[in-house]
Amino acid sequence: MLEWGGVADDFTGATDLATNWRARGLRVAVLLGVDHSPADLDGVDGAVIALKSRTAPVTDAVSATRAAARLLRDAGAPRIYDKYCSTFDSTAAGNIGPVLDALATDLGADRTVVVPAFPDAGRTVYQRRLFVFDELLESSHMRHHPLTPMTRSDVTELLTAQSDRSVGWVSWRTVQEGAVAIRAAIDAVPARSHVVVDAVSNADLAAIAAATANDVLVSGGSGLALGLPLRHAAAAPMPVVEGFRAVLAGSASHATQGQVAHARESLPSARLDTAALTSDFTAEIDRLTAWAAAQWADAPRRPVLVYATGAPEDVGDGAHAALIEAAHAELAVAFTARGMRQLLVAGGETSGSVMQRLGVTRLDLGDPVAPGLSWARGRAAAHGGDPLNLLLKSGNFGGSDLFTAAWEHLR
């Protein structure tokens, strides 16, 4: 029976939430987009609908999220988890606030917790301020994000600017008093409010999860999912699909740049040439596909890496973002036609474009390989429904060796 429904504002955010539910013992699937029926959610305890709405126009993001929540509720989900980035990626106008307002209205939620914290990934909230490891959000690499530059750290200020509801706060000191105290503090906030809750550890997340166990709507990064009680029944293992391996890295994040630099020391790699793509898109895709095929012929088990950004000086202003996404999407299809069956994609927007182009509509999650990251299995409608193993990585997640080490989990 479906116990949880999640709506995520990008594809890697969806697998992030699903990974943390899987880590607590739930059977989990990710559905890509809203073109599904409730029957597509049979056989899982938690289902996350992945949208491509993080940087979409506000009205489009709200409409898509409402449709996703309706589908989940129609499938029987008693609770909805509104998943956004743990670094609160959004512009001054949204989309986090307007989406959360709409869900709270539709679900009749008077008070909705806001918990961006994900300590395992270095995201914590203290005194309302969001930290990325030891730095305030506004001082971190997220300040220079090409699409959603984060120049403030106070989550209550960020959300107040976007929301029509009032915004309250529960302090870390109250969180230390436990679930009963947290619940009382939430209930003391005026009705029609969102409530930012401090959290700096997984123990804090467990207390918040207990305090909100009966809430119809919760929101945040994926960390709050780790607060659920651990189940002892192991979920079935994910089938491994044999074939060639590839990494497509579209993210410009600091973490991905480090992963690209590390991988280039041992993997064959090629950087996307935006000038060549602009001049003759098809010819550049064909060139890179032939290059990858030659690498696989030489070393069939060795992944190839195609990346957009390898160093800080490569980061542009986002002008070529759509071109880069389209190139990665076409490469995914072309690589699949050449026998690639194991694919790691870095970047939320890139992952969305790749999954849509491949025609993947559902992912069944395997066990976590790192905080917020799991391999999954999906079918590529663009290539006759062939199965693939897929790891969709948020740009900011993973250790420096992820592009070389992740394959060890496919056994």
TrEMBL record:
**The protein's enzyme class:** transferase
Chloroplast: present as a keyword of the record? Answer: no
Provide the Four-carbon acid sugar kinase N-terminal domain boundaries. 7-227
Give one GO term, molecular function aspect. ATP binding
Q: What is its EC number?
A: 2.7.1.217
- Note whether Transcription occurs among the keywords: no
UniProt entry keywords in alphabetical sequence: ATP-binding, Carbohydrate metabolism, Kinase, Nucleotide-binding, Transferase
Q: Which reaction does it catalyse?
A: 3-dehydro-L-erythronate + ATP = 3-dehydro-4-O-phospho-L-erythronate + ADP + H(+); 3-dehydro-D-erythronate + ATP = 3-dehydro-4-O-phospho-D-erythronate + ADP + H(+)
UniProt xrefs under Pfam families: NBD_C (PF17042), SBD_N (PF07005)
Q: Which domain of life is it from?
A: Bacteria
Q: Which SUPFAM superfamilies match?
A: YgbK-like (SSF142764)
Spell out the family assignment given in the record's similarity comment: Belongs to the four-carbon acid sugar kinase family.
Supply the NCBIfam families for this chain.
OxoTetrKin
Describe its function. Catalyzes the ATP-dependent phosphorylation of 3-oxo-tetronate to 3-oxo-tetronate 4-phosphate.
Protein name (record): 3-oxo-tetronate kinase
- Organism this protein belongs to: Leucobacter tardus
Lineage in the entry? Bacteria, Bacillati, Actinomycetota, Actinomycetes, Micrococcales
